[in-house]
Amino acid sequence: MTRFVAGRIGFYTLIAVLLAFFTIPLLWLATAPFTSDPTYEVRMPDFTSENFQMIIDHPYALWSLVNSLVLAVGTAVLVVVLSALAAYALSRVRLPGRDALLYALLLLSSIITGTAAMVPLFQLAIELGLIDSQTGLILILSGGLLPAAIFMIKDFMDSTPKSYEESARVFGASPLQIVRHVVVPLVRPGLATIAVWTIANVWGNFLMPFLLLSDVEKQPAAVIMYTLYTEGGQANLKVLSTFGLLYSVPVVLMYLFVSKKYGFRFHGGIKR
């Protein structure tokens, strides 16, 4: 009995330490933007709006959030559409070595990361005239995320009944009409999951935009945040904390919305 009680105490102590480890930074992020002289300590804010005015007066801060939104949404649309079409084909068409191809794509996308492939990607962007182009960056980011997205969405495609598609085919529906009107409504939770996953990856991506976008007016928030330091490398806590809060809010709201609507169910839309 004593050993059981000691074990439970140790377990709850560990949970409390882990919760404090993750909660304290979030409390700082929620309070520092409203403090007139923030430090690295968590303390009661005096609810000033001065820090937000500094962000508004910054020449690139707010616009960089728009750039991040353009890159994230553009990449998500491309990844969701292409991964859905590819996953549907791989799910329905029996090709020799299909599963081996799928796992090879996933393995290569994990091994050859954006950092490892930076030199050939940069050279390719130069040859295609995509340097300092948001469209070029969206294409490069989409290419890196597609293999894993196809692998994930294929499970949703496999769970949809083929009888629905056969019925639509009897009434003369084309393959694209079947995908749009039959398959997509059934796998919407999966598409939402892929969209959130893609946006989260692009929203926090620093290296690719930093190397491929030299025009500061086109750079996303992840890159602009790097400039919110003094020349001596010290963080401007007033601006950095406020910008960090604004930078975090869109992703949190997106997650809450999709989680409430779909619940991130990792199965198709048919209850068995």
UniProtKB/TrEMBL annotation:
It is found in: Cell membrane. Pfam families: BPD_transp_1. Belongs to the binding-protein-dependent transport system permease family. The chain crosses the membrane at residues 9-30, 60-88, 100-122, 134-153, 190-212, 239-258. The keyword Coiled coil does not apply. Keywords: Cell membrane, Membrane, Transmembrane, Transmembrane helix, Transport. PANTHER family: INNER MEMBRANE ABC TRANSPORTER PERMEASE PROTEIN YCJP, MALTOSE TRANSPORT SYSTEM PERMEASE-RELATED. It is a multi-pass membrane protein. The keyword Transmembrane helix applies. GO terms for cellular component: plasma membrane. This is ABC transmembrane type-1 domain-containing protein. Residues 65-258 form the ABC transmembrane type-1 domain. One of its GO terms (biological process) is transmembrane transport.
